[in-house]
Amino acid sequence: MPRTRRTTRCCALLAALFLAVAAGRVAAQTPADDFKQSCSSCHTIGGGPLTGPDLKNVAKRKDRAWLRRFILDPAGVLASGDPYAKELLAAAGGVQMPPVAGMTGDRADALLDLIEAESAKERSKFAGSTVSDRPLTDDDVEHGRAVFLGTTRLENGGPSCVSCHAMGDIGWLGGGRLGPDLTKVFERYKDRRRLAAWLTAPATETMLPTFKDHPISDDEILGLVAYFRHAAAESEEDTAPRALVFILLGLAGTMGALVAFNNVWSGRFRSVRKALVENVRKGGA
What is the pLDDT of residues 151-163, one digit of tens each? Predict the structure, then answer.
């Protein structure tokens, strides 16, 4: 068999194997895990609204077909001009529900079944965050800053926040640029409960797979909330053009290297030329 055909078949088999494994993982995920990872950062079941509405008895407010359609394509339902979707958007302060990665009709049905079952309970296990509501202290702020910077490692092995995010109190060269600056994140979420709920199950395309198997502990979340609240009150968001700073530093370093290189090689050139001139003079004499 020609090598090209064998390579093509191998690639096809590997791709099929990868898709089968991925599908198996999704299928193995329980509706409860799915709700926690995909929904609980914005919704509770019986715990009151967060960024999105409380979903307790949501099937009594809208029929199942509408709910299923909204879960599958929230942007499409909103774009259609649906009046209830507009009400939800206004209640959420203009924060639109993002599409859930890999959402299917079967997953949507399973989530709706879960919400109905949990709504019938006196208290759902998805009623809200279990993070303490005690007063936050200076020690909490310091603990949260250490967690953010990675000087204190996360209990469950997740990466530190600073690898992707910046804060106004760590300077221009501190922090990553993959995620947004978090100096004012507490102001965007308005209160401890909403921010803690989001940190419990961060539902962005980058953070969800990163922290799925390495969740942030309640103690770490409490520290981060304290740090973010303190930073929002005390620090200025880093609005400096970070990319420009790094470009200028790179240019400065390059120019310095060129100057040093020139000094070394120009000295060698002069020493070689001097020897040649001396040889010519001696030969002429």
Answer: 999 999 999 999 9
